[in-house]
Structure formats: structure tokens, C-alpha cells
Design brief:
Helix content is about 10%, strand content about 40%. It is mainly beta and about 950 residues long.
Length: about 950
């Protein structure tokens, strides 16, 4: 029972379905659970309203409200102001074991498209399917989410087992989608079906990169332009067991995947394009017991994880990893900035680690972990200010990890409108700002002894007669009780000045240095026309947690103009203010927004690309007319491809740019080892011709196709070319997945007759040899070792077959030819590899090869007297040959008798006949006599 429970816990989601009522709704507050956190950190909990053991995923909307997903198919909206939750849909789902509604993503253009994406499993008449679908969020009259409509399936595959199904969906800024699916295998045993994870034509055990319509993106490693909807065209990487959660690294642009383990290891992987993470042949960096010996694991190389930890209940152990995110905020201490946060659902822990621009570990997780007892995280995301937020499936809450010392106090702002007839003043504090985007509470002190705490952003208060002026105060508080205040002078019997502001309009946007022109008029019932004072503020928000203001120039008069700021990530606030004789002030502000375009840095090989002014990200919305630099790493993530210049730009890694009037994509060119060799060798260019396809990355092997051949590269073998019939055979034989990458260029043999390449796969050396007479054939392993020991083609000649299996399934062989002489090498695990050729081989063939005499147990060898040649065979027989006697078989008891007399050294000499039968007597004739055999007399030798 304990083992079964432990295995169940290893699933990414609990198998239980919700059976009780939903937990009561509670307001957002600071967590009170017994969690152990580093000093300064607190957990703020928000009840998702889905009950325990149901919350699976969540995502923020542009207004900072949240959509949550439940395993049972519920999709729910959580308003940012704490208003009641609203159910958007109850979708049909299959909830068995790992399955259900498990993935949710919000489209980057949600504000206009209202698109979200969901992954779930759905029952069918004969089983179930796993589906990624697009939905549109409907809204009510107030613009608040009210439901889901317009389901459009983008990716759908049949389900096999109720575990390791469709998992995470990520919606990228460029409109593409990332998706993960587990191997859908039977975790209870060694399931050969898990080898689906290795097959690029099967949609299991993969991370996919999809276009908006669900087809593959052209940059995928196996993309087929003629069939972009094929499974292979969609595959970004393979060899995963259950990539339940992953995120896209903001700098590398690569998936960082948590692969839930089987019996031993949990993995974190920074996944490169075309990567093969090795499951089911490898778990962690170990061959997987029961799987690694399967035929489908032959040639599958280990891809070490970025980090792996053992199963168990130890300090640094766990049982079900949940991949997290890189912390990109600035409110946490410096030691956490840029760190990767991830957790273990079973162990209730969170760790952090760091890796470099090549996806290599630079700092391992804290030992012991510093975030413990934190619930069961099943999804990590970032709050608007960058805080780490995770879905705790065990409690059904969203838990926000906030650092109090980094919390920014809100700024209070308020305006008033006075009704002198009733001495009622209406206060409006809704323009108050919290730079952490936290919900605020509003405390009002009206200055006449009346106080209203948590009264909301808009309140009205009637003042008593007798006093003409009061000083009111607004205090705004965030959830951590950081506060900001402002005072407001009010004169209840005095009309508030009326201020009219004329602006370019709320939809106008501005480029750097473009004039922003505003004007205003002001009248007061008591004072008449009032003078206007102008102030400007640049609101600079490099991140949500670091918004701050830069005061600018001011002025007076009815009109005011200022050039739009050159500060990046900024808007301008132009404020007109008037004050009447009673001291009552009225202000109105126009916010000039930047005209932004998407700047995206891409590269021909995965590499670290940075926009320094935007916090070293590789894509950002930037202001038209802004000038700054972008940078590319000198070395790509693979550690071997070198920067070769910007397309249409400088050769230097730094490029100073000015943002134009449209979106911009800047491409950094990287010369891979394949490019480097090709570009540096004109003779090679002439040999191979022009490239006909993009370079392909398939695990540790890269290759590129040219008009007349291919170049292959791996870290172990370097860059080598394969051409002509050798290449044709190599590809037909399975290429690098079977033989491994080439260790030589295609070259000529010393006799000038043949072309060949050598290859290596996990230490196993193979070759393909081609001649016009024999064609191209593969030879590898023990047979190739024997052929090499016999001096390659100078011994047996060239192969006339690929290595093949014998009909009985026991042996392997290659045939060869040298001139008119046919030879073979046969191999079995019991006998080893041995050569047989010439007249002896012809005789062996007459007897049905291994079906007659068995397999050769020695290479053809010469007798001590130099006259004869012989082979022994596994069934106890031999063939001896001399020029005078020819080749003859000596078998069984007759062979034993001949051996006891000293073989050919005896008076009998060499055999002159095969064994034959006369009148029930078995007999073989020799040069000096003969041997007969009967059951009664046994084997008897006779002289002539």
C-alpha cells in the first residue's frame, strides 16, 4: 500500500477528484500556515475557490485579475479588487489519475483578442483524447469576464494511459505556442510503449513549438515545409517522461523543463532545439533499469540534466518536481534576482538555482532548502511586479511569495467636488498608485473628527456648519500595510474650481521628442477665471516593482507643450493645477503614452541576446524614436557556434539602434562548426555545392544538407562531410541514430577503388564502403573489428552486404568479395566473429551455411605443414582444404577419431571426400586411408 501511495504521489497531479463542497471564500491575506521561509519573506494566500486538490493552473490578465483552472474542468475568474469570484465554464474532462484540465495560458494580445488556451483530457466513446484548444473569454456590460466560447482545437492526440498526458501550454509574445506532453506510458512496469518518447513521428514525450494555427514553426529541428502539420514538424525536443511543467527562459528563449521521474531521479533540463533528453533509456544520468537494454534504446546517448535530485524524504530529496520560472523582479534580495525557482509537490519544498548563458549550472540548489512546508506547488508564475506565485493544489490557494523589505509603499492621490448647498464633499482617491500593482485599502480622515477606514476609493462626507475650511487626509495601504498619505484642503461652503483640460486624446501615442501639447481653462464660482500652473512628471517603470517618478519642467498659462521623454519604459504626466481663494485646489492630469513597437532579437543558433536598457531581455515593447544598444553573446548556447554579425547590421556583438516606425526583428548570425568549416574551405564548397536546407540539430548531432552531400558535427567527432553513395546508404541505414556521426570525411581507399566513411555510436565503430561493383554497404561492431584485424579490404575485400541477421536470429554477418573470391564474417555471442572464404566457404554454403555445420569458431587458418586450410564450426564439424584434395567436411565421430590420430599429421593425411553412407556405414576417405563409423563398432580407421 505504501509503495502504491508513493507512486501515486509521484504523478504530477493528485488522482483524487473533488467530492466535497468548495471551501468558503476568504479574502486575500498573509499566510498563517507553518511554512519555513527566509527572513523577510511572507506568503500571501488567495483562495481560488475550487476546493482542495483541484487547483491546477492560473494566469494573470492585463488588469491583474486572475483566471484559474481546476482539474475537474472548472475555469474561474478572480477579480483583482477582491470582488466575488465568477465561474466562466465547467468543461467536460476525464479526471482519472493524472488527467483533467491541467494547462492554462493567456494570449499576449488578450486585451484585444480575449484569447486563452487550455489543455485537458476528454472522454470519447472508446477512450479519451488529449487536447490543446483556443477559447474566447466573453465579457459582460462592464467589460468583466463572464464566460468562455468558441472552442477551437489546435492539437489533439489519442490517450493511452491515465498518466503522463498533455501538460503545460505557454503563449509566447511572438504569437507562437509551446506545449508539453508526457510519454503516456504505464508507470507500473517497464512499458516498451514509452519508447514513443524517442520517435519524432509520435506525439508523446515531447516539447512542441507551434504556430498560432497548431502547425509546426519553421525553426523546429524536424520541420517539413511540405507537411507543417505533421507531428515531426511540431517537435522542438524529445525524450521526456512527464514534462509536466516548463517555462521559457526570458533570456535564452529556451524551455526549462521539470521532468517527473520514474524510480530514481527528478530532473531540471534547459532544453535546446532538437535535444533528446533520453527517456526511457536514461533517467538522470543513469541508464534506466529495464529500459536501457531494449532495442529501441540502442544508440540513444545520455543528455545530462541541468540538475537532478533523488527520490526520497531526505533534506535534498523529493518525489515529483514542478518546474518553475526565473525571477525577473527587483523587490527580492539581490541573491535571488535572476535565480530559477522550482519546487517539489510531494516534498512541499522550493529551491532556487542559477545557470549561465549556455544553460550550464553555476549554482546548485540551497542545501538545506530555505523554502519548506510551503504546500504542494503544481504551477509557478510571476505576479505583475515579478513576485513568485504558485498554485498550491493541496490547499486550493494561490500563494504569493513576497519580500517585505522590497515592498514599495503606495502613493496617495485625491480630488474633490463640493456641493455648497449641502456642504457635501465627494472625495475620489482612485488615482492613487501602487507600484507593486497591489490592491489598496483607503482610509479617510475628513478633518472634522470623522474617520472612515477601508472606505473605498470614492466617498462622500457632509460637513457641519460653522467652520469654513477643513484639512482632510487620505491614507492608502497595500496588503503588507505599507502606506502613503496626502492631505486635501476642503471648504464645504465654497464651490470647487472647475478645470477643463484639452488633450490629444486617450488613444494618442508619442514617439521620442514628439511634442505633447495640452491646454486648459479654469473658472471658479467665487473667484472667476483662475491662473493655471503646469507640472510634468516622467513615470519610469523598468519593472513593475521599480516604477518611479522623475519631475520635469513646469510652466504657467492656458497652454503647455513638452517633447515626449526619451526615458525608456516611460510615460509622461502633464498636470494642470488651479487654487481658489479658499485654498481649494483642483488638478487634472493628461498621461501621454509611448508609441511602442515590438523589438525582438533572434539568432540563427540559440544564444543569449540582450536589450540592456530593458533588463537584458531578448524582446520588449520599446518606444518609437528611442536610441539604445542591443548585444549578442560572442558564443552561442551550444558553446561552439561563434557570432558572425547582425543581419543588415554591424559585425560587432553590440549594435546601436534607433527604433523605427514598425515592429523590428534583429537577427544575430552565428557560425556553427559546420558553417565555420564550410566557409573557410573553398574546395569543400565546390565539392558540396550550395546549402539546400537549414542546419538540423538532433540531440548531440548537427547536420546540414548541401546540393552534393552533408556536413555532420558532434562535440566528440568534429565536422565531417559525407557524400555520394556513402551518404545515400548512411541515410537509408538510419544515419547518425544508428551508426552515429562520421569520424572521417568521405575518402578514397589506398587502392583508389572505394569511397568510405567511418562512424562512431557510443564507442561502437562502424563504416560504410562503396565501390561501383559492390555498391555501398555498412559494417560495424564485432564484424568490423574482425574485418579490420584481417586488414580491411586488403584481406577479404569489400563488403557486398550490410551487416544482417541470420534466419535463426542468433548470428550476424557480412559478405565480402576480393576479385572472384567471396568471403564472409559471421558473429554470434557464443563464437565471436570469424572469417570464412574461398573454397571452404563454398563447401560450407553447400551444407546450408550455419544451418548445416553451425557457425565458424575460428578464422580460416593454415595447417602446420603449410599444405592445408581449415575452419572449425560450432556443431562439432570442420572443413579442410588443400589444392590436391579440395575442400571437404569432416563430421561427428569420424572427426573425433581423426583428431585422436593427430589430424592431418596422422597417416591418414587430408580428407578426400565429405562423409558419405554406404550400406548403413558412415565413411570419410583420406589420402592414406579411411574412417568408418557404425553404432556397433564406433569409429575405426583403415589403411588403404
Amino acid at each position: 500500500m505504501a509503495l502504491r501511495k508513493l507512486r501515486a504521489l509521484r504523478h504530477a497531479l493528485v488522482a483524487a477528484v473533488l467530492t466535497g463542497a468548495l471551501l468558503p471564500v476568504v479574502s486575500t491575506g498573509v499566510a498563517t500556515a507553518a511554512s519555513a521561509l527566509p527572513p523577510g519573506f511572507v506568503l500571501q494566500d488567495t483562495n481560488a475557490g475550487l476546493g482542495t486538490e483541484s487547483l491546477t493552473d492560473f494566469a494573470y490578465l492585463p488588469d491583474n485579475s486572475i483566471i484559474v483552472a481546476g482539474k475537474n474542468g472548472t475555469v474561474q475568474w478572480l477579480p483583482s479588487d477582491g470582488s466575488p469570484k465568477r465561474k466562466l465554464a465547467s468543461l467536460p474532462v476525464r479526471t482519472d489519475e493524472d488527467l483533467g484540465l491541467v494547462g492554462l495560458a493567456v494570449a499576449p494580445d488578450f486585451a484585444t483578442s480575449r484569447t486563452i488556451y487550455l489543455t485537458r483530457s476528454i472522454n470519447t466513446g472508446s477512450g479519451f483524447v488529449m487536447r490543446l484548444a483556443r477559447f474566447t473569454v466573453t465579457v459582460d456590460a462592464a467589460g468583466a469576464p463572464s464566460g468562455l466560447t468558441g472552442e477551437q482545437s489546435l492539437f489533439e492526440v489519442p490517450g493511452i494511459f491515465n498518466v503522463h498526458g498533455i501538460d503545460t501550454v505557454q503563449a509566447a509574445a511572438d504569437g507562437t505556442l509551446w506545449l508539453s506532453i508526457g510519454d503516456n506510458g504505464d508507470f507500473r512496469k517497464v512499458d516498451p510503449g514509452s519508447l514513443r518518447a524517442q520517435d519524432i513521428n509520435q506525439p508523446y514525450g515531447k516539447v512542441f513549438h507551434l504556430a498560432a494555427d497548431g502547425k509546426g514553426v519553421p525553426s523546429n529541428p524536424y520541420y517539413d515545409a511540405a507537411n507543417p502539420g505533421s507531428t515531426a514538424s511540431k517537435v522542438f525536443a524529445r525524450g521526456f517522461r512527464n514534462p509536466f511543467r516548463f517555462s521559457i527562459d526570458p533570456n535564452l528563449g529556451l524551455p526549462v523543463v521539470g521532468d517527473v521521474g520514474w524510480n530514481t531521479w527528478e530532473e531540471v533540463n534547459v532544453v535546446q532545439r532538437g535535444a533528446n533528453q533520453g527517456w526511457p533509456c536514461w533517467e538522470g544520468s543513469d541508464p534506466t533499469s529495464g529500459y536501457s537494454t531494449l532495442a529501441g534504446c540502442a544508440g540513444v546517448a545520455n543528455q545530462p540534466p541541468l540538475y537532478a535530485y533523488l527520490h526520497g524524504d531526505g533534506v535534498m530529496q523529493g518525489n515529483s518536481i514542478t518546474s518553475g520560472i526565473v525571477y525577473t523582479g527587483t523587490s527580492y534580495p539581490e541573491s535571488y534576482r535572476g535565480s530559477y525557482f522550482f519546487g517539489d509537490y510531494v516534498a512541499k519544498k522550493i529551491w532556487t538555482l542559477r545557470y549561465d548563458g549556455q544553460g550550464k549550472l553555476t549554482r546548485g540548489p540551497e542545501n538545506p532548502p530555505v523554502f519548506t512546508g510551503i504546500g504542494g506547488p503544481v504551477k509557478f508564475a510571476a505576479a505583475p511586479n515579478g513576485d513568485i506565485v504558485y498554485a498550491d493544489i493541496l490547499s486550493g490557494t494561490l500563494r504569493r511569495l513576497t519580500y517585505t523589505a522590497g515592498n514599495t509603499a503606495p502613493v496617495a492621490k485625491a480630488t474633490t467636488v463640493t456641493d455648497p448647498d449641502t456642504r457635501t464633499v465627494t472625495f475620489d482617491g482612485s488615482s492613487s498608485i501602487d507600484y507593486d500593482n497591489d490592491a489598496l485599502k483607503y482610509d479617510w480622515d475628513f478633518g472634522d473628527g470623522v474617520i472612515l477606514n477601508n472606505g473605498g476609493p470614492k466617498v462622500s462626507h457632509a460637513y457641519p456648519a460653522g467652520t469654513e475650511s477643513f484639512t482632510a487626509k487620505l491614507t492608502v495601504r497595500d496588503p503588507l500595510d505599507a502606506a502613503g498619505s496626502t492631505t486635501i484642503t476642503v471648504a464645504p461652503g465654497n464651490h470647487t474650481p472647475e478645470l477643463t483640460l484639452t488633450t490629444p486624446g486617450d488613444t494618442a501615442t508619442f514617439a521620442v521628442d514628439q511634442p505633447v501639447a495640452v491646454s486648459a481653462t479654469a473658472n471658479d464660482a467665487e473667484d472667476g477665471v483662475l491662473p493655471i500652473t503646469w507640472a510634468t512628471t516622467v513615470r519610469h517603470c523598468p519593472s513593475a516593482a521599480t516604477c518611479h517618478s522623475h519631475p520635469g519642467v513646469g510652466g504657467t498659462g492656458a497652454s503647455f507643450t513638452q517633447p515626449f521623454t526619451e526615458h525608456p519604459d516611460s510615460r509622461m504626466e502633464l498636470t494642470a493645477t488651479v487654487t481658489d481663494s479658499a485654498g481649494v485646489t483642483t488638478s487634472k492630469t493628461y498621461t501621454a503614452m509611448p508609441r511602442q513597437h515590438l523589438l525582438k532579437l533572434v539568432s540563427t543558433q540559440p544564444a543569449v541576446l540582450k536589450i540592456p536598457v530593458e533588463g537584458d531581455v531578448s524582446s520588449a515593447l520599446v518606444t518609437e524614436g528611442a536610441s539604445f544598444d542591443v548585444r549578442a553573446a560572442p558564443l552561442a548556447i551550444d558553446g561552439v557556434s561563434t557570432f558572425a554579425g547582425w543581419q543588415g547590421g554591424p559585425a560587432d556583438t553590440k549594435w546601436d539602434i534607433t527604433v523605427g516606425t514598425t515592429d523590428m526583428t534583429l537577427t544575430a548570425n552565428y557560425a556553427t562548426p559546420i558553417d565555420q568549416r564550410y566557409n573557410a574551405d573553398p574546395a569543400l564548397q565546390a565539392k558540396l555545392g550550395a546549402p539546400t536546407a537549414a542546419e538540423v540539430t538532433d540531440g548531440p548531432v548537427h547536420y546540414r544538407t548541401y546540393a552534393s552531400g552533408r556536413l555532420y558535427w558532434s562535440a566528440a567527432t568534429g565536422t565531417k562531410f559525407v557524400t555520394g553513395p556513402v551518404l545515400d546508404k548512411y541515410v537509408a541505414f538510419g544515419g547518425h541514430s544508428v551508426l552515429g556521426p562520421p569520424t572521417t570525411d568521405t575518402a578514397a581507399t589506398p587502392d583508389g577503388v572505394a569511397q568510405f566513411n567511418h562512424f562512431v555510436n557510443n564507442g561502437n565503430v562502424g563504416s560504410i564502403y562503396y565501390t561501383a561493383a559492390t555498391g555501398a554497404h555498412a559494417i560495424y561492431g564485432e564484424i568490423r573489428k574482425k574485418w579490420a584485424a584481417l586488414d580491411y579490404e586488403r584481406g577479404l575485400g569489400y563488403p557486398t552486404t550490410d551487416e544482417a541477421g541470420t534466419p535463426d536470429g542468433v548470428g550476424r554477418y557480412n559478405h565480402f568479395v576480393k576479385g572472384n573470391n567471396v568471403g564472409s564474417i559471421y558473429y554470434t555471442a557464443a563464437t565471436g566473429a570469424h572469417a570464412i572464404y574461398g573454397e571452404i566457404r563454398k563447401k560450407w554454403a553447400e551444407y546450408g551455411y550455419e544451418r548445416g555445420l553451425g557457425y565458424p569458431t575460428n578464422d580460416e587458418d593454415g595447417t602446420p605443414d603449410g599444405r592445408g586450410r581449415f575452419n572449425h564450426f560450432s556443431l562439432g564439424h570442420s572443413i579442410y582444404y588443400t589444392v590436391a584434395t579440395g575442400a571437404h567436411v569432416v563430421k561427428g565421430e569420424i572427426r573425433k577419431k581423426w583428431a585422436s590420430l593427430g589430424w592431418e599429421r596422422s597417416y591418414l593425411g587430408y580428407p578426400r571426400t565429405d562423409e558419405y553412407v554406404t550400406n548403413g556405414v558412415y565413411r570419410s576417405d583420406f589420402e592414406g586411408g579411411y574412417i568408418t563409423f557404425t553404432l556397433a563398432a564406433g569409429a575405426v580407421d583403415h589403411r588403404w
